[in-house]
Each structure stands twice: as structure tokens, then as C-alpha cells.
Amino acid sequence: MRSIKIYTFNPKNPVNEFDIYALSRGLNSGKPLETPCPNCFVLACKNQAEKDFYTTLLFGLWKTKHFYPYHTGSVIPFIRISDFKQVVQEQAKRVSIKPKDFLQDVEKVKLLEAKQKHIYEQMALINDVKRALIYRHFHSKR
Q1: Across the strands, what pairs with 23?
Q2: What local confidence, expressed as pLDDT, does residue 50 receive?
Q3: How far apart are alpha carbons 93 and 97 in whole angstroms?
Q4: pLDDT(124) > 90
Q5: Under DSSP, is residue 137 helix (H, G, I), strand (E, B) or coil?
Q6: Separation in Å, CA 120 to CA 95, 109, 115, 132, 134
Q7: SS percent in the chain: helix, strand, coil, step 5
């Protein structure tokens, strides 16, 4: 597995279609992003397959809070680019031993998250119905 180029995002630099962005500040440091923001790192991928692999890797690392031990800063936590590079490269080597197993597990997590989101939406609707049932008793026109 080749070493991927990772650098800090600068809006003056050209954007490649295979670039991946990862948040570098806040409690969500390491979270993969669709579009760049001022506080992010760029992972420069060569092709779509490499982009898919690293997006999945970042998602897994972020979801398991793997970057938390590397947070620095007292008010707004952030992760240093050197720590970020080290973690990404080490974990890429580790999961590339069994890439199919890794991708299958990530797909399972994504399905579970979709189900969780659906359940949250259902719970919000139930709460709205409960509120509406009680609301009509207190705000009826007489």
C-alpha cells in the first residue's frame, strides 16, 4: 500500500476530484467531509478506488473515536497533522490485510446508522402526536 499525501487545506490550492477532506478541529476531528472547510486536512487520492478505501477508513476511525487520544487544545480541541498522518497510515496498513472484511463491517455499520436514523424520526413523530393530543385540551376555543 502506497503512502498517501496528506496536507492542510488551503482554498488557494486546486481541488482534485479524488481528494478527501477530514475535519481537523473540534470533537469531530477526523470526520470525513464531502466538501472542504477552513479547518480540514486533504487526503490526495489517485483514483476512485483509493478514495473509497480512505473514506471508509476515515469513517471507521472517526466513528470509533480513534482520534480522541490525539486531541490537543483546551478550548477547541484539534488534532496535529503529524498525528493524523501517523494514525491514518498505521490503520491503512492494518486494515489492508483483510480489506473485504473491513468493507463488509463498515457497510453493516452504515445500515445500522440508517435504521437508527429511521427510528429517531419515528420517535419524533410519536412525540409530535402525543403533544398534539394533549395540546388540544389546553388550547381549545370556548
Answers
A1: 40
A2: 86
A3: 7
A4: yes
A5: helix
A6: 32, 16, 9, 18, 21
A7: 50, 15, 35
Residue 43 CA: distances (Å) to CA of 52, 62, 80: 12, 15, 15
Sheet order of strands, 32-33 included: 5-8, 40-44, 19-23, 32-33
DSSP assignment letter at 31: -
Predicted confidence (pLDDT) per residue in 15-53, tens digit: 888 999 999 999 999 999 988 988 899 999 998 888 888
For residue 94 the three cell numbers come to 492494518
Tell me how far apart the alpha carbons of residues 40 and 32 are, in angstroms, rounded to a whole number.
9
Here the cell at position 93 is 496498513
The answer on pLDDT for 90 being more than 80 is yes
What does the alpha-carbon distance between residue 23 and residue 40 come to, in Å, rounded to a whole number? Answer: 4
CA gap 4, 54 in Å, rounded: 9
